[in-house]
Specification:
The protein has one domain (4-74). It contains 1 helix and 3 strands; from the N terminus they run βββα. It has one helix spanning 55-74, and strands at 4-11, 17-25, 32-38. The chain has a 3-stranded antiparallel β-sheet, with helices on one face. A hairpin with a 5-residue loop joins strand 1 (4-11) and strand 2. The protein is flat and about 40 Å long. The two termini are 18 Å apart.
């Protein structure tokens, strides 16, 4: 994930890669943090990007999103 402050990579049981991270963008008065979820396409034959998660994987993704949001609010 280019230009990211920090990112985490998780792998689903079906082999999909999911990256969760933050981007810090320049703002008018101060930088703005954005939470980013990236699912790189490993097969260019597919135009649609979708993700199927098990309940455990969904909770793992949720934990990662919450952690990134908390860090963004704390400006870590």
């Amino acid at each position: 994930m280019p230009n990211s402050i920090r990112h985490e990579t998780m792998y689903t049981s079906y082999g999909r890669v999911v990256e969760v991270g933050r981007l810090r963008l320049p703002g008018v008065s101060r930088p703005v943090d954005r939470i980013v979820v990236d699912v790189p396409r490993t097969n260019p034959e597919y135009d649609d990007l979708w993700l199927s998660l098990s309940p455990a994987e969904a909770r793992d993704l949720a934990r990662r999103l919450v952690r990134q949001a908390a860090e963004a609010e704390a400006h870590i």
